[in-house]
Write a structure and sequence with these properties.
Largest sheet: 5 strands, parallel
CATH class: Alpha Beta
Helix content: 40-55%
Bound molecules: thiamine diphosphate
Radius of gyration: 20 Å
Number of strands: 7
Structural class: alpha/beta
Length: 369
C-alpha cells in the first residue's frame, strides 16, 4: 500500500532539482505563473547557509526537539493537563520558514501543534512551559494551555484548537498588514487534514482577490489524527490547491532545513513584492502520536523508525555540520546548553504558582451578547 507521499517517496528521495517537471499545459503562460516559484526553487533548491547559520538552525531545531521531549515527560507525570500535541519530527519546517521572516513586522498563526512555532519565533521557553503546566506566569496566564498560546508582542497569533480556523484568521492578519501598510506578511500554517475544510478556500479566494500578503503553509505530515492523506484527500498534491484562485504553489521537502529556507526566501520575496499570496506544501512527518492520547494503530513502527533513521532533519543538519568540519565538541556544547535551557524552563514552570483565583474572570467574555 502506498502510505502517502512523504516517507521514502519521491520528494524525500530526490533533491528538488532532480524532480520531474509536469508537462506544460496548453495555456503555458498561466501555468508558468502558478509554477514560477516552484521552478525558482528547483533551480536553487538549497539555501547556501554559512556554518554559523546552519549551526543556528541546528540549535533551534534541537531546542524544539528537547523542549517537546520534556513536555512529553511532564505530561506523563501529570504536570500537563488537557491536550498536548507534539511537533517532534517537524522541526525543520518552523525553523526554516520562520528564519526567513522579519520578527519585527511579520505575523505567524497556526493550529494546536504550536510550541515549535513559538520557539522558532524566539519566544522564551519558560513562559511556554509555564503555560503548558497551567501556571500564572504562562504566556496565556496559564488559562490557555498547549493549544491556546498567544503573544501580540511577538506577533504570534495562536495556537487554535478549531481545525482550519487559523486560515481565515491568517488572511485577516494579512489584510491588517496591507491596510496598515506596515510592510509585514502573515504566515498561516495548517495541516493536511485542515486543508479539506471549506473555510480554507474561502480564505484563499479573498486573499487572492485582495492580493493579501499571506503565505499559507500546509504542513503535510501524512496524517490527520489517524487518517492517512490518501484516505482523506482526493487531491494529495496540496501545493496545487491554490490553482483555482491563481495562487502559486510550492512543494518542499520539510525534512531539510536548507531546502525549507530556500523555499521560504522565494515565497517571502514574492509576497513582499506585492504579488499576492503563496501556498507552500511542506512534506514532513510527526514521530509521536497525534496527541498524547493516540493509540497509533494507523501506522507501523517500522514506518516511524524509517523516517527517524533516514530522514531526521536534526541528524541531517548535524551530519552536514560535521562534514563541513565543525568540531563535534561544539555540537556537544550546544546540546548541553539546550538541555540546561529546557531543564530551567521545566523548573521555572514547576516552581511557578497557579493563576490567582481573580484571573478566572479576566480576558474572558462573561456578559451575554
Ligand atoms: C473543526 C474541527 N473539527 C475536528 C476537530 C478534531 N480534530 C483535531 S485535530 C484533527 C486532525 C487535523 O489534522 P491535520 O490538519 O492534518 O493536522 P496535524 O494534527 O497533522 O498537525 C481533527 C479532526 C477539531 N479540533 N476541529
Amino acid at each position: 500500500m502506498q502510505l502517502f507521499q512523504t516517507p521514502g517517496d519521491t520528494i524525500l528521495a530526490k533533491p528538488a532539482s532532480s524532480r520531474k517537471a509536469p508537462a506544460k499545459a496548453a495555456d503555458g503562460a498561466e501555468n508558468f505563473a502558478l509554477r514560477s516559484l516552484q521552478e525558482a526553487l528547483e533551480k536553487n533548491p538549497r539555501f547556501a547557509a554559512s556554518d554559523d547559520e546552519l549551526l543556528k538552525f541546528y540549535e533551534q531545531m534541537l531546542l524544539i526537539r528537547r523542549f517537546e521531549e520534556k513536555a512529553g515527560q511532564l505530561y506523563g507525570l501529570g504536570l500537563i493537563g488537557g491536550f498536548c500535541h507534539l511537533y517532534i519530527g517537524q522541526e525543520a519546517v518552523a525553523v526554516g520558514l520562520q528564519s526567513a521572516l522579519d520578527e519585527s513586522r511579520d505575523s505567524v498563526i497556526t493550529g494546536y501543534r504550536d510550541h515549535g512555532h513559538m520557539l522558532a519565533y524566539g519566544i522564551d521557553p519558560k513562559v511556554i512551559m509555564a503555560e503548558l503546566t497551567g501556571r500564572g506566569a504562562g504566556i496565556s496566564k496559564g488559562k490557555g494551555g498547549s493549544m491556546h498560546m498567544f503573544s501580540v508582542e511577538h506577533k504570534f497569533y495562536g495556537g487554535h484548537g478549531i481545525v482550519g480556523a487559523q486560515v481565515p484568521l491568517g488572511a485577516g492578519l494579512a489584510f491588517a498588514h496591507q491596510y496598515r501598510e506596515d510592510g509585514g506578511l502573515c504566515m498561516a500554517y495548517f495541516g493536511d487534514g485542515a486543508a479539506n475544510q471549506g473555510q480554507v478556500y474561502e480564505a484563499f479566494n479573498m486573499a487572492a482577490l485582495w492580493n493579501l500578503p499571506a503565505i499559507f503553509v500546509v504542513e503535510n505530515n501524512g496524517y490527520a489524527m489517524g487518517t492517512a492523506v490518501t484516505r482523506g484527500s482526493a487531491e494529495t498534491e496540496f501545493h496545487r490547491r491554490g490553482t483555482a484562485f491563481r495562487i502559486p504553489g510550492m512543494k518542499v521537502n520539510g525534512m531539510d532545513v536548507l531546502e525549507v529556507r530556500a523555499a521560504a526566501e522565494i515565497a517571502v520575496a514574492h509576497v513582499r513584492a506585492g504579488k499576492g499570496p503563496v501556498l507552500m506544501e511542506l512534506h514532513t512527518y510527526r514521530y509521536r502520536g497525534h496527541s498524547m492520547s493516540d493509540p497509533a494503530k494507523y501506522r507501523t513502527r517500522e514506518e516511524v523508525q524509517e523516517m527517524r533513521e533516514n530522514h531526521d532533519p536534526i541528524d541531517a543538519a548535524k551530519a552536514e555540520l560535521l562534514k563541513r568540519g565543525v568540531a563535534e565538541e561544539r555540537l556537544k556544547e550546544i546540546e548541553k546548553q539546550i538541555r540546561s535551557i529546557v531543564n530551567e524552563s521545566a523548573d521555572f514552570a514547576e516552581n511557578s504558582p497557579e493563576p490567582d483565583m481573580a484571573e478566572l474572570y479576566t480576558d474572558v467574555l462573561v456578559e451575554s451578547y
